[in-house]
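Researcher: I'd like a structural prediction for the single chain below. Treat it as a standalone chain; there are no partners to consider.
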Amino acid sequence: MEERIEAQEKVCVLSLFDVAWANDQLRYGIALLHGEAVKQDFVGAVLLAGYLARRLESLEYGWQTRILRSWIHRAVKAGSFLQRAKRADSTSEGEEASR
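Model: Treating it as a single chain, here is the predicted structure.
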């Protein structure tokens, strides 16, 4: 009887959260690792991102968990906040080349 109640509670919890919510948590975790979400030190950001990964895993969002853990690993390996890749703006490059 207890197992059945736990299963029903889990279904209720999962229905409160959806894939869009999980994707928002993933984006937030990645922003933490880039130092963009909150003003805190690197270790605090990694710990918070790890908490988000465990929360996603406990709610069975496996894909988001794997991606966030990959970003955490990348940040820890770098030893500091990750830097966003600079994208070249084709219109500004073309204008500069024509001058």
